[in-house]
User: Fold this.
Amino acid sequence: MKILLVEDEESIRYLISINLKMIGYEVLEAEDGELAKEIIENEKIDLILLDVMIPKIDGFTLANLIKDKRIPLIFLTAKTSTDDKVRGLRLGGDDYITKPFETIELIARIEAVLRRYGTNDKTLKIKNIEIFTDEHIVKKDNSIIDLTAKEYDLLMMFISNKNIALSRDLILQKVWNYDYLGGTRTVDIHVGRLREKLDLEDCIKTVFKIGYRLEL
Assistant:
C-alpha cells in the first residue's frame, strides 16, 4: 500500500512517515506541490496525504489538477475555517484533518478512507509479525500465533501508540474497560504472555513506575 505524503515541514513529515512505515505502509514524500505532481504522474499511489499551504503548487490547486486520477485524498492542514474545509471536500478530498492531530487518529482516518475505496489490505506489519485486522489473525514468520482476545487488543493498543509510554491504569481502562474490577497485575501478566508469544521482549519495554512502551 503506497501513500504519498505532501508536507513542507520536515519534522511533521518525518513523524508521520516513520509511524506509517512502522505499520507496513510504503511512504513517498514530497515537500512541495511540483514534486508531488511529478510523483503522482509517475507512480501508482493508493492514497495522498496533502498539506494545503505548500510551496510552488498549493494543496488546493494540486487537488484540482489531479482530481481526474481519482486517488483517495486526505487534507492535512492548519487551515481550520469551515470555508476551507468545504473547499477541500469539494475539490475531491475524502477527509480533512486539522493540525495538530494524533497519529492514531490519522491512521484510523486513512483506514476508513481506504475501506471506502476497497483498497485497504488491512494488514499491519511490525518486524517479522503480520496482523490481519479483519480476521484478528496474527502471524509470526508466516505461522499463526494463538492470541487471546485481550492479548490481541493489547497488541493493537501498543501498535497504535508506538514509542509512547502507557500507564498500567490506562491500559487496564482501554483494554479491559472502565468497569473491570481486577488490578493492574492483570496487565503485567498479559504483557508477559505477549512478549513471549511474539518474541517482543526487546521491544515492549517496562517504563519504571509507569507501565510499558512498544519501541520500534
